[in-house]
């Protein structure tokens, strides 16, 4: 998935991507619950099958990868908070939700943003084999959604 997003960002005009967002320019990408775009901050996050998250900074043209879940426990869903300062990641294999905090760039780190691992919560009962999405229902609460409705809610 990372390669696909990198290719899309390379092919699409940078300013257009920043102004309109990846989901509007390439609608099929929004069907993947492992991809989330925060237009205001100019960032995209994508999860993969081996538990990694890739953070793409559209403005700077940079990529940062981090291990979000146990190696081999795939990322089932991820989502930006409404303010773009947090990312929630779900692993249905490990049955956990993990939060990441994106700090604002400072003068000394010259425009790069830092990613801090935050709280982790176990999800019960098991979600393995179920289709899930993450949806921020307010600025501080993310919900794990299954086809039958809200499964659980968590706060970073």
UniProtKB/TrEMBL annotation:
GO aspect biological process, one term: protein localization to plasma membrane
A Gene Ontology cellular-component term: cytoplasm
Domain of life according to the entry: Eukaryota
Species of origin: Macrostomum lignano
Signal peptide bounds: none
Protein name: WD_REPEATS_REGION domain-containing protein
TM ranges: none
């Amino acid at each position: 998935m990372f390669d696909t997003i990198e290719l899309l960002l390379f092919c699409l005009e940078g300013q257009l991507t920043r102004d309109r967002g990846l989901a509007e320019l390439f609608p099929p990408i929004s069907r993947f619950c492992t991809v989330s775009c925060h237009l205001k901050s100019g960032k995209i996050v994508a999860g993969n099958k081996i538990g990694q998250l890739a953070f793409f900074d559209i403005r700077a043209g940079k990529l940062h990868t981090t291990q979000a879940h146990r190696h081999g426990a795939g990322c089932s869903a991820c989502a930006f908070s409404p303010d773009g300062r947090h990312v929630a990641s779900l692993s249905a294999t490990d049955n956990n939700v993990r939060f990441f905090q994106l700090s604002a760039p400072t003068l000394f780190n010259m425009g790069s943003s830092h990613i801090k691992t935050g709280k982790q919560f176990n999800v019960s009962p098991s979600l393995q084999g179920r289709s899930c999405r993450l949806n921020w229902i307010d600025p501080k609460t993310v919900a794990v959604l299954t086809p039958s409705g809200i499964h659980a809610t968590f706060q970073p």
